[in-house]
Amino acid sequence: MSNGYKEDDYGWVRELMQYPQTLQQRLDFFKDTSQVSVPEDPIERVVFQDRAKRAIRKIAQNKGHILMVGRPGTGKSMLADMFNNVLDKSLGDYIRPKESIVAYPGKDKNHIRIAYENPDKIDNLFLDLNKEIEIARDNTDDFCLCDQIKSVNKVKNGLIWTTGLSALAGIFFPPAFIATGLAGMGSIFMFMQENNHKAQEKIQRQTIGHKQNAVKHLFDMVPEVLYDPRKDKELMARVSEPDARNMKGGFRHDPYQSGNLQTPPHKRAHLGAHAKSPIIYIDELKTLIRAGYMSELLEIMQKKEFLLEGGRDTGSGAADRSENHLRADNIIVACCNHDTLEYLQNEGDGAFLSRIEDKGEIVQMESAVPETLKNIRQVAQYIKQEIIELGKEFKGTWREVIEKEGYEGVRKRSRQILGRSLPLDYKLKEREFSKNAVLEIIKELRCRSSDGKLSSILRPVNGIIKTAEFEAILHNSPLVEPEHVRHAIDEHVSLEGALAREIVEHKRDLKKYISSVTDSIGYVVGLAVINSRSSGRAYGQPLPIRCQINAGGIDKVTAPGKTGDIAKAAAQNVRASIKNIFAKIGAPYIGYEMHVEYIQAHGGVEGDSASVAMDIALISDYIKQPVNQRYGVTGSLTGDIVLSVGGVTEKIRSIMDPALGMEGACVPWQNKHDIEPLLINAEYEYIQKDEVPGIRLFRIEDRKDPFDIYFCKTKYSAYNILMGLSRREVEDKMVERSKKDLEFMYNMRNTSFSFQPHTIQ
After folding, report:
1. Residue 4 region by backbone torsions, left for phi larger than 0, else alpha for psi between -120 and 50, else beta
2. What does the buried/exposed string (b/e) look like for 198-230 if buried means 16 or more CB atoms within 10 Å of the residue's CB?
């Protein structure tokens, strides 16, 4: 009975085996990356993102806005930098601000007036004003208490004369001595008062800035330059946490709020990105949403002007305002991830997105691109760019050591850092990648994607390239070779990757234990993936599944543990598929209770890629047929058809370690191109079991330790590989089991029942 394969299908599988030769031919334009050139156009140095690059160029022509939506590491920040670079070289002199922004005192102590002035003219104005104030300060009389001192001195002298005269009179008239005493005490007091005035005068004259305080009210009237275009040459402002303070500006806190020393508001004003920068780059819109600045941004984008307002309600500048508007004709370059995009679509009925589309474009960054000749060349270009950057880093870090001590000093110090002896001709210098090393990078990009595409999440690959460089340097290799890249890939795993390795180690012993103590009935090795949020990479792992099916009164599927809605729906789909089989083959059907267990899947299971594995485990338990525990299986089951799933390449790689004891896997036919990267730098051959085609990979040189991968179109193909049964044999066993269950149910009810055998259709 046919499993859905056509004669052309076998030819297509054989064509897959030509992939490494085809890829080698596409890379015939170079032997190593020294022959790869880097484009002069900065925008073209961003690889893969053709649509985003076209949008960036369009914006550079019409001063529109752009929102780049995509996963981290796809090149959003790099495109923004390149856009700034290109616009600076092309139109920078025309869009760069040319006027100074000056703040003048306003109508009262809480208002300021904003003016746009010619920088040279404002310099002359300030020079003239400062000269006039200096003259006024110099002409200010010194502090003087002469009048007070003179009056006190007169009184003092009068009292002294009175004291003397009253003393003479006392000789002849003794009561006059009373006046002598009183006048003497008064003269002493006035003497002290005179000295006090003289001391005050001296202190005031010696105090620094006393003349400055006399003209403070004049200084407070001098305008303040808030922005000078001659000092700030940057076109683009990078705002990581947008809020009113760094986007619009405001008024600083005044520490001198008493003693008549208040700082006027125009002296405390400061500007944000809107007033100073033609281009505003918001790296992550999620921070803008958290700060609650979205409504203000929308208003400024529409009006292209804004009023400068005070800060927090409790601050000293809360009541400060500008009387007139500041211009804000900015180009908004923003980035966000898909979770933020969903919020933007709901917020204000997508008002921000509407503003962007009105004068710009929303660009979906590519997470994966087809493996075309152009994109393969861009991979080589990207590696070359990283090599050049690494060379610059070496020169910047070791420049002084090389100048003073030469490369021998670098060698000696590197030996101390690395803790190992280094070759005599060791040089800390960047190495070029060989063609086969580039192939390994392409293989890794293919493994991190699916459907014959290359992953566009390149930031994690930077670390692999640099680590491969260091490996080549440590071995003093003239080129970076494939083994250096493979070592770097093993070294660069994310947190999720390290966790996946531990799980694989645990599952290896678990699988061996299950195989040794069970009859393998109802057990199947599914394949799952853990997705890394930091690197975007998927890490495969085996997923042992145990299923049991028992005759019962009602249909019921039980899937305990942290099972997601999609996985539960997949279990329901398997139940419907089994019921459909009974209907097709004419077997009697009664209610069945189905139990699905993901063995020690403590983190839970989500997705439908285990639905084929569940179906096989349930059928195995139903017909009591053992499942080959040395084969893994993955696929999404719809009826009898096995549909494609994600992460197939990583799932296969996770069980190819010989220590795990796996001998092969069944994958969906639609995922056949995901096997292509595994053929790079490997030995392989075509295989076929009955009607099911496949490819045999050899994990060890000299064609040793084979690993078989079969491409299944229907679940019956998987039955054949994992249980060794054809479709006819499986259906016959199901009919036999259903009859026994039906008889058992009637016997339980003490009901006599005879039935005629059904014919399989």
Report:
1. left
2. eeebeeeeeeeeebeeebeeeeeebbbebbbee
Q: Rounded distance, CA 621 to CA 546, Å? A: 9
Q: H or E segment at 163?
A: helix 146-172
User: What would the two tokens of residue 695 be?
Assistant: 């490819």
Q: Which tokens sit at 508?
A: 């290896």
Residues 80 and 61: their CA atoms lie apart, in Å, by 15
Cα 215 to Cα 137: distance, rounded to the nearest angstrom: 6
Any alpha helices (H) in 419-434, and if so which ranges? none
| Across 107-116, 327-336, 675-684, 739-748, least confident range | 739-748
Residues 287 and 419 in one domain: no
Rounded CA-CA distance 219/212 in Å is 9
Give the angle subtended at the CA of 689 by the CAs of 686 and 690, to the nearest 5°: 125
The residue assigned the tokens 């896997």 is 665
User: How confident is residue 91, by pLDDT bands cut at 50, 70 and 90?
Assistant: confident
> Residue 499: which of 525, 528, 532 has the closest Cα?
532
CA dihedral 8→610→578→718, nearest 10 degrees, is: 40
Q: What is the CA radius of gyration of the chain?
A: 42
The b/e string for 689-723 (b: 16+ C-beta within 10 A; e otherwise) is eebbbbbbbeeeeeeeebbbbbbbbbbbbbbbbbb
Range of the domain at 161: 141-214
- Give the number of other Cβ atoms within 10 Å of residue 67's Cβ: 26
Q: Are the C-beta atoms of residues 335 and 77 closer than 8 Å to each other?
A: yes
Which residues have CB under 8 Å from 148's CB, separation 6+?
A: 197
The string over 511-550, giving b where at least 16 C-beta atoms fall within 10 Å of a residue's C-beta and e elsewhere, is: beebbeeeebbbbbbbbbbbebeebbbbbbbbbbbbbbbe
**Which two three-digit tokens encode residue 490?**
């093993």
628 in the same domain as 730: yes
**What is the reported pLDDT for 723?**
92
Of residues 183 and 271, more confidence is placed in 271
275 shares its domain with 198: no
Quick one: 243 and 354 in the same domain?
yes
Verify that 413 and 283 share a domain, yes or no.
no
The burial of 184, by beta-carbon neighbours within 10 Å (0-12 exposed, 13-18 middle, 19 or more buried), is given as: middle
User: pTM for this one?
Assistant: 0.73
Structure tokens at 127: 């020079």
Residue type for position 302: Q
* Last residue of one domain, picked from the residues 182, 214, 246: 214
DSSP summary character for residue 510: H
343: pLDDT strictly greater than 70: yes
Tokens of 56: 């960036």
- 427 and 534: one domain? no
Tell whether 310 is covered by a domain: yes
Contact criterion met (CB below 8 Å) for 546 and 523: yes
Q: Minimal CA–CA distance to 528: which of 628, 641, 612, 629?
A: 612
β-pairing, 305-306 vs 326-327, is: antiparallel
